Each structure stands twice: as C-alpha cells, then as structure tokens.
Task: structure prediction
Amino acid sequence: MLALGRHSGKPALFGPSADVMLVRLAREARMPMVDYRLATADDASAIGAVHVASWRDTYAGLFPQELLDGLSAESRAAMWAMALDAPACSNGTRVYVAESTGEIVGFGACGGQRDDAMRERGFAGEIGAIYVLRSHQGAGVGRALMSLMARDLLARPLPGASLWVLRENVGARRFYESLGGAITADKEVVEADANFHEIAYGWPDLMHLS
Result:
C-alpha cells in the first residue's frame, strides 16, 4: 500500500529513507569531480592542513579546546612529509588523497599493523588515518578512500585490517559500521592530561571493503 503524502493527498512514492537518498544524490550532483591518487612528499603541507581542520571540526566538544587551538598544520605537515619520504620506516605507510578542483579535500593512510594485540587477532594491516573536510562529507569520498586502502593492503598481501576511533565520535563509528566494520577491542588513551576511550573496528576480510 502506498502512503499518502502529508499535505498533497497524492500517493507518496518515496518513504523517509528514499527522501534522504534523494537529498544525498542532489548534494553529490552539486559536488565538483573528485580524483584519487597516491600522495607524494609535495602533498605534505596540504595533508597537514586537512588533518588539523578535520580534527578541529570533528573533535570540538570532545577534546579540550586548548588542545585543538594548539594544533599546528606545520607540525602535522612535517610528520606526513617524514612518512611520505621514507614509507619503509613508517610500517610501509601509503597515503591516498582525494582532490577536487586542485585542492586536497581528504586523505587516508594505511600500512602494516603497529599494534601487537591487533596483529595477534588477525589484523595484519592498519588504517592509520582517514579524514575528509566537512565540506565534502556525505558525498562518497570517505567510502572511496577506504576502498582504495583496502585494495592496497590486499595487494601486499595484508588481508585484514583495523583502525582506532574515539568512542564518542558517533558519526565516524556509524560510518565504519556501515562498511561492515566490527568492534574488536577498546583502550584508554591520554591526551592533554585527559583520559579518553578508543574503540577498534576490524575487517578480517578486506575483500568486503575493496
């Protein structure tokens, strides 16, 4: 049976979930084309800027404001430059960037597993970072980056991978769960003299992400 539209009295062909999909498709149609590629050392500055902007957007109200205010795009750029210059020294880290109209709008980093406990659970690969500017969220950029990293790890071959996410980062957790990630562990971490909890999501078979 077709539900009636709220005001028109005409059959409503689309339910709430379809309405959400139409909004999403309309938003994607307005988005400029996004290209994906492996990052180089020349991208370090732009990656550092995206990293800091994403932290400030994502963790506002979750991390102390003084920690967010003190973030430095330059220091993050230096960190990424080091990883990109010598990937073998960073657990084989590879970084993929999403680029729109000549600007980097998101990136993801993957490599060998750094956590012994996660490796023992069968997750030989690790997704160390994934960040997308708020202006480009909801348009499939994060999903595309996750797929690229899954294919990269499978080719090494590292068939399973995990990542850590702040427990209170509900949006990111919902995203990982929509991609089939399952909670595998949790831990307490200290940032700026405050205690936080992180949760690990794992994909035993990255074929489901690729």
